[in-house]
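hey so u asked for the seq, here:
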Amino acid sequence: MLVTGAGGMVGSYLPEVFSDMELTLTDIVGGFTPLDLRDPRAVMEIIRSVDPEAVLHLGAATDVDRCQQEPEWAYQTNAVGTQNVALACLAQGAALVYVSTAAVFPGDKPEPYIEFDDPRPANLYGRSKWIGEQIVTSLLPRSYIVRAGWMIGGGSKDKKFVGKITRLILDGKNPIQAVNDKWGSPTYAKDLLKGIRALLGTGYYGLYHMANQGSCTRYDIACAIREILGRKEISVAPVSSDCFPLPAPRGRSEAIRNLKAELLGLEPMRPWREALREYVQAELVPILAGR
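ran it, structure tokens below
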């Protein structure tokens, strides 16, 4: 299997989850086989030379606010880059797994979004990823599109919400503020890869949601981390998202339900609190304790 964007958060778990597979790990950062998704010739050449059974396409422009401010930067990687990968897979006869996002939805639905809801992205990042989905669907019958939720994981690479809050609590920051008016479905990167591995073995090509069970706010996550760390003395204050103005608009909800997986009888992903506990205790705490 060839993997794009292997240097990111999800890529941290590739050697563990796919330990019995021959992996070609590519990225634009050091330590990996160099590959710029924006270069169609380079993409075609490496997929032709490796001749993988499948390509796991993790590479993406994921800075939501930069995408909003620099649309061409977002489209060049998330749309054109994805087209480059899809065309190379088509030419080589490789199956493709394209990891997308719950941000393709507008965020106005009270219940979690399912695969049969219509995308209508609230921001440019979501739109560029949705265009990537359409490109994959139009070019490749042998493809899986997997939408993830709020990503957690990465250990030492974790610069996202869970990593930041864990650091603040361990450092004794008090009080901590966390937004309580935006909802989402946490997705532990290790669990996401396990789900993708299971999906690859089915041949059930198509669109899937793949997040840990349940939905929550970032305030709920912060409170859960405080409980996991046993730091009851830390106060977590719920605040409106208006307290943290950002360039890109966000919908009220990015919560998703893995309905297609349920209907096909695939093993369900565990609840988000269980996944969060494992991640914080087994990965983050040992890393941060050694700072």
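The domain at 2-289 is CATH 3.40.50.720 (Rossmann fold). The mean pLDDT is 96.
lmk if thats what u needed
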